[in-house]
Amino acid sequence: MLMKRPILLCIFLLSQIIAWAQPTAIPVITELGLAQAPAGKLSKYWLQIASNSLSEPIYVPIMVAKGLEDGPVLGLTAAIHGNELNGIPIIQEAFRQVDPTKLKGTLVGVPGLNAISIPMDRRRFPDEEDLNRLFPGKENGDESQQYAWRIFNKIVRHFDYHIDLHTASFGRINSLYVRSDIYNDTLMQMARLQDADIILHNEGKPSAGQVVAASRTLRAEAMLAGIHSITVEYGDPQVYQPEMIERGVLGVLNTLSWLGMINRQVVPTPSAVVCKKSYWIYVDEGGLLEVPVELKQLLLKGDRIGILRNPFGDIIREYFAPEPGIVIGKSSNPSNGNGGRIIHLGVLR
Ligand SMILES: [Zn+2]
After folding, report:
1. 97 CA to centre of ligand 1 in angstroms
2. Is residue 206 reached through a cis peptide bond, with omega within 30 degrees of 0 on the bond before it?
3. How far is the C-alpha of 148 from the C-alpha of 134, rounded, in Å?
4. If 278 and its partner were Cys, which of 44, 65, 172, 346 is the partner (CB 3.0–4.6 Å)?
């Protein structure tokens, strides 16, 4: 009898450890249903968005903090480009800081919108499409078109306000900047709340030459549907940057304060440089590139922005700012064929 007690105790402890280690089951949904989400609580869901060739479901993680009082729906979407990760901890931390019992309205977070490309460390969808140029997508289109259609219709169309969280692409680094329509008062106000270095006017419409009907960004599609939407670029790809994350969380909390969803004053942030337009400057020959300017640096016309060398170290070409402006983003990859990017130049308003 005495021998049995330690064994029973061990079994009991083991069962407790197993119970503790089991994550709480997260419900699977097929569409975001805010009416069904419990008020005064944080809910986590797996939204089944697609299925792979082994018939296995692909899930998008969704967080919903629904207040006890009615109010607007603010949606946060991160990583539509699968290598742009700083937005994920911004959403996680914002939810940690929001008390659903004191919230007015609903905060929705999607910490991993491109659930197929994120585990593959890829910016693009497996079919090489850029999901953020595919909206509205197609209900019965190809793989990426269906994915775009579903994320808009099952998730994003439920928002009143929307922040799409991005970073730079591979081989480049970014300041913290907002892409928004600066001539729209509501969107400009949202942009000013984000603790950004730069606010760039950009309507999110397709650039010339693209097929207009199916090449909108998620932001442009949201705006067409009457959702107030901005894009924020937080630094660099495939990394977590504590400073960017902290400033991103401040921007989300400021947006919640401004919308009256949380009882907190908007925290003032340094005013951002406003740009009326921007463009990338490219090398016209291949070589090894040095970019001797810093992010956020103000440039005069003629300032040197690029030094291109051959493998022997000889300078083969130098590049200069064609007009005054600010460095929004820059290349971080020295290896460039002709057409490689040097800097993303913002032209001040
Ligand atoms: Zn992006």
Report:
1. 25
2. no
3. 7
4. 346
Q: 17 CA to middle of ligand 1, Å?
A: 41
* Cα(99)–Cα(80) distance, integer angstroms: 27
Q: What is the pLDDT of residues 75-88, one digit of tens each?
A: 999 999 999 999 99
Quick one: tokens of 4?
Answer: 């049995």
Give distance in angstroms: CA of 44 to centre of ligand 1.
24
3-state SS of 6-74 is HHHHHHHHHHHHHHHHCCCCCCEECCCCCCCCCCCEEEEEEEEEEECCCCCEEEEEEEEEECCEEEEEE
- Whether the predicted pLDDT of 7 surpasses 70: no
Domains of the chain in start order, with CATH, are 28-271 (3.40.630.10), 282-348 (2.40.50.100)
Predicted local confidence at residue 205, as pLDDT: 65
Q: How far is CA 346 from CA 32, 139, 146, 165, 334, in A?
A: 38, 37, 34, 20, 22
Residues in the 5 Å CB sphere of ion ligand 1: 81, 84, 166
- Does residue 291 contact residue 343 with C-beta atoms inside 8 Å? yes
- Check residue 203 and give its pLDDT: 83
* pLDDT, tens digit (0-9, with 9 covering 90-100), for 244-277: 999 999 999 999 999 999 999 999 999 999 999 9
Helix, strand, coil share (%) of the chain residues, nearest 5: 25, 30, 40
